[in-house]
Amino acid sequence: MVELEANIEAFNKAMLAIADKQVPEMANKFKRVVALKVLRGVVLKSPVDTGRFRGNWHVSLGSPTSSEVKGAEGIGAPDKSPAAAAATVAGLENKEIVQVKFGQNLWINNNVPYAGRIENGHSQQAPGGVVALTLAEVKEEWD
């Protein structure tokens, strides 16, 4: 009986050691997967007229950014093409999303002056908004 208890105790210690390592790694990976799904969703659902709104999604750790990209080149550059959406996602994915850890705040936001109006249904291309629809889809995937 003593040997069985020792084996159970050793097994429990081994399981705790595995959990101590694996659970945080799995939580970090899950947060990155969800963040990337949300980022892709909001960028791809963004209505496009000039491309300014779609090109102005930002990802930041800790607190939201207040900047707006107004340039003609690079990440966030206004562009109507599908390639621009993919470039925006890829550029932002390679910034903070790959660094985020479970428990950290990761912000995905858009600072163009009319972003609130788009989210509240004032765009014929996105009458249901962008963020709310994306979050509902991502949540539904794990419900």
| Most strands sheet | 2 strands, antiparallel
Spatial sequence of strands, sheet with the most strands: 1-2
The percentage of residues in β strands lies in 5-15%
Count the strands?
A: 2
Quick overview of this protein structure:
The chain is mainly alpha-helical. It has one domain.
Describe the structure.
With 143 residues, the protein is mainly α. The chain has one domain (2-142). 54% of the residues lie in helices and 7% in strands. It contains four helices and two strands. The chain has a two-stranded antiparallel sheet. Helix 1 runs antiparallel to helix 4 (131-142). The N and C termini lie far apart (44 Å). The mean pLDDT is 85.
Please specify the SSE layout and strand pairing.
Elements: H1 2-45, E1 57-61, H2 82-97, E2 106-110, H3 115-119, H4 131-142
Antiparallel strand pairs: 1-2
Helix pairs in contact: 1-2, 1-4
Defining traits:
mainly alpha; two-stranded antiparallel ribbon; 2 strands
